[in-house]
Amino acid sequence: MNVNRLLEVLRVSLRLGLTSFGGPIAHLGYFREEYVKRRKWLTEESYADVVALCQFLPGPASSQVGIAIGIGRAGLLGGLLAWVGFTLPSVVLLMAFAYALHGVDVRDAGWLHGLMIAAVAVVAQAVWGMAAKLANGKTTAAIAIASAVAALLVPSPFVQAGIIAAAGLLGWRCLRADNAGAAEILPSPIGRRTGAWFLAAFGALLLALPLLRAAVPNHAIALADGFYRAGALVFGGGHVVLPLLQQSVVPPGWMTDGQFLAGYGAAQAVPGPLFTLAAYLGFASGPAPNGIAGGLLAVAAIFLPAYLLVAGALPFWHVIRAKPAFRSALAGVNAGVVGILAAALYDPVWTSAVRAPSDFGLALIAFGLLTVWKLPPWLVVAASALGGLALPYL
């Protein structure tokens, strides 16, 4: 066990957890900047491979990418620490909201609007950089553009999975001659047998928890079941999980719609994955507030499927990724991922943040600070938050 690597993974992921605002697409931009460009833990191609794998899996895609990178860097415990570091700041903040800030509406705060504008710049930088590397030929550019158009016309997580599959098929048929060269693969310290056990555990829990909930009327079991299913059955992550979470806590009478929406508003104000809304819901829900134990149980339950799926899929991905025909298909998948990210840059990132010419101006400044002046993302995020406070006075 390499303790230094484990501590390094925890330290880097914790810093990302403190500074990664803007939702899952923006998180991928922050990850690329930190893990690929700055630390060079993996190549651009390997990073795109990991993103493509996590797009296929249900659950919080950005958190799964972080877990996969942590596993590749420092084993199974490294994946766990990467998840802990990335989620811990928002978990703590949202449980604090649940304790002290019920009913506070932060959705229209100026500084929050500035953070969303910063996300526009971060995602634009990620799309630009990935396109230059992964969609720089006529065929790959065509796949990326077609993928973006399809994702914009039919915005659905299930359609995204179909786009990736179609891009892979086009890559397999059209890119074998010019894009089938060997590329570095994210190392996986997990064997296929171990991976199969992780996948089996994922399926067993998905089947067993509802049966246990029906047999044993216990609030903790019901909480674990509802949040595990939310994490296991949602493709696309982010805001897509909200209906399932609301269904888990509002109809049983564990909290009101107003309390749920207050937590959602608070979740927009903190860094890290939106799935950490579970910390607020688990803390505040129940016949009486569950407190810290409920918040931690809900967080563990909603993220456990992500960890099991990534750990289970990585060893098989590692094997098939090395096959020449699959590399051809994966070149197409990588181009498709670029297209999906480009579509996401417009909707929801751009459409939710840029509402006026002054917003666009702030986004341009943030983009310039990132790409020309090479300022660290956390500093650009802080400057954008201040800019968001000033926008109403311009």
Automatic annotation (TrEMBL):
It is a multi-pass membrane protein. Keywords: Cell membrane, Membrane, Transmembrane, Transmembrane helix. Its main location: membrane. It comes from the Bacteria. The chain crosses the membrane at residues 80-99, 111-131, 143-170, 196-215, 227-245, 265-283, 295-317, 329-350, 362-391. It is found in: Cell membrane. Pfam families: Chromate_transp (PF02417). The keyword Translocase does not apply. InterPro entries: Chr_Tranpt_l_chain, Chromate_transpt. The keyword Membrane applies. Signal peptide: none annotated. Belongs to the chromate ion transporter (CHR) (TC 2.A.51) family. NCBIfam families: 2A51 (TIGR00937). This is Chromate efflux transporter. It comes from Paenibacillus artemisiicola. The lineage of its organism: Bacteria, Bacillati, Bacillota, Bacilli, Bacillales. The gene is chrA.
